[in-house]
């Protein structure tokens, strides 16, 4: 017997329609690529998204056509999120930090028909204009009035394209499983792989972003997603924010500490989301100016492990609660969020911060397990460490244009992360499987060791890699970036670690570098460090 409920497909256009109807005046504020702050509202974003849908239709975009962007987080990118997906075509957000070869690869693989790009990325677009590829139209996300003498001929300009289009556009209704957006993994090994999200997966994921035990994004929040809109749909924040009518503040290209702090203070931001490296700059700037992040209530840290010293810095220095979250491009990305349970109410704040350094518990909609090398399921006892696998409504079932992959097995996706899960379901990531260190038959967690090293005064950043060792097979090597004004030496760091971690974890060597090599999504490129130091 079927239920007797209305059939309303879960479509992305519903989120912006809802925002326009029930939160029309809620602001969307952007630091523009041109420099000034731009202010608009959900009502206006909705109107312009429809016009944009009309405009791309006139460029030959149809249902399923891929429309690419190389762009910062701004109001125009937001209009593309709703306009392109809303009309049934697929928004392909390209990471500008991909190498030229990788960018050529993804443009061909996705068969992009149009490219929208910010002026900062004109050199990338100009190179693509010269090359042979499927892109038929290049649209600069700005106004023709700001046309510069170096602009190549044949460009279209976003503002005029949208202004000239009619707004008498009704969002089409279609199957909620229709593809909505496409994001390629950063491809540190092999070619990037395309993850093709659907309207259904996106909407279900957005509900999850708003859940109280998750990121609890709500109308009360003034949300500043520093996580880029070219990386996993900015963790789904644009859709979820529209769903609840949260004021959005976009940083544009201003990702440095001073400009972020200005925005936070001027706009009364309550909610921040991004990777740890960004927050280091913000915390530094707040220290330099001797100010508190007084409007901020929570900061969501994901993409890499949140170092315990950063959790402490936010909580003790600014009374800001850190929500540590884990996910991947393939998981939309939310997999786990770390929040204390009711039974933790009596916990000391020190123990609670220790808990927060874990990646957190799975959210309804996904399921997790750990398995050993033979795919045998391991217990959730907080001790056994294994390969983390995930399945769920917003987890990719395969890669774009690929039937099967090594990572997809019997209904589960192998994340490539090594983790243990405790009896309460808290996941603690110890490593990427390709970064694990096995010394004398025992695992050493590079994430754990990095977190401990970053607590040492004078250490700004730390990365741990395995180096070959005759006696122990592998030993950890600690690579450190010092805080600018301090003079910490390796013996001081090792002495500090001896009191913090098991004896066999303490490395024999510390190497100092000016900066750690970062990949396209802000993660430390350990492969490069291994090439430099492993021998
Ligand atoms: P990406 O697909 O580029 O978003 O990368 C996903 C990977 O980032 C995961 O498989 C993890 O290795 C890593 N990652 C994401 N969040 C965390 C976290 N909170 N702690 C440690 N690693 C993380």
List the helices and strands and how they pair.
Blueprint: H1 12-22, E1 27-31, E2 37-41, H2 42-58, E3 66-70, H3 75-86, E4 90-93, H4 100-110, E5 112-117, H5 122-130, E6 137-140, E7 156-157, H6 158-164, E8 179-184, E9 194-198, H7 199-210, E10 222-225, H8 232-235, H9 237-244, E11 247-250, H10 257-267, E12 271-274, H11 276-289, E13 298-301, H12 308-318, E14 321-327, E15 334-337, H13 349-356, E16 361-362, E17 366-371, E18 386-392, E19 408-409, E20 412-421, E21 427-432, E22 437-439, E23 442-444, H14 446-454, E24 459-469, E25 473-482, H15 490-498, E26 509-512, H16 526-533
Parallel strand pairs: 1-11, 3-4, 3-5, 4-8, 5-6, 6-7, 10-11, 10-12, 12-13, 13-14, 25-26
Antiparallel strand pairs: 1-2, 8-9, 14-15, 15-16, 17-18, 18-20, 19-20, 20-21, 22-23, 24-25
Helix pairs in contact: 1-2, 1-3, 1-9, 2-3, 2-6, 7-9, 10-11
Bound molecules: adenosine monophosphate.
